[in-house]
Amino acid sequence: MVSIKSKNLLVLLIEIDENDPQKIISQLEERLSKKFFSKNAEIPFLIQVKEGVEEGVIDKVVEYLTQRGFSYLLKPAEKKGTKPSEVPFNFENLKGSNVLIVNKNLRSGQIIEHAGDVLILGSVNPGAEVRATGNVIVLGELKGIAWAGYLGNKDAVIVALKMQPQQLRIANLFAPVEGSIKDKERPQVAKVVYNKETNTYELEVEPLV
């Protein structure tokens, strides 16, 4: 079975819980008409994977969608056990109950805290805060506070389609928000990189694509 969720057609969130790629693709073709593909090219998508789904299945679904003009918002890390600077995004596929999906905008004073990844299908307004032991993904505007890997996970990332935060933090590292985001209209990713010259870890923000 495959289900599709979206927030004002901004991003497609595709949930997959079986290992038959042809069946999944057939369901996608039923739900996403040819007219939809032609009118909404380059819409980004995320895949939420249930336990037991094989990696090869996901690869075929990703290939199908990218061939039709959609763009994969986040790619998994190429390999595990490497320093953060050695992979473009150290982000594993969203899996099962480790993901908290919040289908609303967060207002000032609201705090979301979760032991796992947090996916916000909306915006985080000033005064709101998201804390996750894993990754924080905001499919809207991030204008509040985001803290990923708050138990010390430097491999976590923070992603937002529009990054205008009050504060960014990964593990115990802060990002210099002022002046660090050059193109606020493009999706951005905050991640930890290893500086070989200083032998230290630093938090950097750069365009996602």
UniProtKB/TrEMBL annotation:
The keyword Oxidoreductase does not apply. The gene is minC. Keywords: Cell cycle, Cell division, Septation. Cell division inhibitor that blocks the formation of polar Z ring septums. Rapidly oscillates between the poles of the cell to destabilize FtsZ filaments that have formed before they mature into polar Z rings. Prevents FtsZ polymerization. Residues 101-197 form the Septum formation inhibitor MinC C-terminal domain. Residues 2-69 form the Septum formation inhibitor MinC N-terminal domain. One of its GO terms (biological process) is cell morphogenesis. The keyword Cell division applies. InterPro entries: CAP/MinC_C, MinC, MinC_C_sf, MinC_N, Septum_form_inhib_MinC_C. It holds the Pfam family MinC_C. Interacts with MinD and FtsZ. Belongs to the MinC family. This is Probable septum site-determining protein MinC.
